[in-house]
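discrete fold record:
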Amino acid sequence: MKAIVWHSRGDIRYEEVPDAPAPGHNEVRVRVAYAGICGTDLEEYLAGPIYIPVEKPHPLTHAQAPLILGHEFSGIVTDIGDEVSQFRVGDAVAADTLIYCGKCEACRNHLYNLCSNMAALGLSANGGLAERVTAKADTFIQIPNALPLDEAALSEPLAVAVRGLRRAAIRPGDQLLVMGAGTIGLLVLQAARVMGVSTVTVVEPSPFRADLARTLGATEVIPPEDLPSVPTFDRAIDCSGKPAAQVAALNALKVQGRLVLIGVPTALTQFNTLDILNYEREIVGSLSHIVDEDFRTAIQFLADKRVNAKPLISRRWPLSHGEEAFRLLSVGETDVLKILMKPGEIGL
């Protein structure tokens, strides 16, 4: 089968690979319908390895580079292994992607995203930028018939947004600041509205993305230089991963405000700890999602049309254009958000 394979920094290839194996115990094989290229995939391409195991196999999956990318995808179940009862052949599914041990302290406390050996399809096991994927059945969730498969591929980034809002301990009357109107930022904006937040300010320098944020419900959209110089916001979520944005977001918080970091950083951020201490502010991280708390919520938001994924899909390209897609995203074109790759012609 064909797949997009990460070999090393700057080296991803569309190439022939062995077919996804027949499913074993508690596994399913899925024919991929659409797979998105995530900001994390792009960082692995530009600055990796970050999460991809290179020098030795991952302790849980036993996989290492070269590795098939893709952790945002949807598809159709084609084969079912032993003791799989939740799926039937033909079911439409989205990939939750997380793989965890179930035994460590974090797993015992239902924090599967913080498993001491946490892995993910497309980062520490072969993922969805391929024609087919075989994985444990519990890494997939059945999607409602009303949810198109292309939009379902955005379930994973929306689940990231939902978890970020939960980590922010968002309250209906809060004034929320969102740094960055990329895919995650625009999903945070929409999910916040669904969760009852009435005032959402988005900071975004790109006119194209700023206009889209307004269309999708932002109360106000401002360029970084217009961020208020006085503490204004109860909660802030940084989706950019940029040090300057993180510092600016912290300083824009009211007393006892909370800053949530979602964006994957590629450089160190230096905070003035007095800006935290003197205002009793908090900085917390938000990593990935938890299936029953975040991912199922994301799927429901999409199925109910309360979150609109369509405007975020900039391209739907055949998988054979994968290398071109990574090159396009790497130059930072601001009018390109999510590129979905479609393996083959499967009538979806």
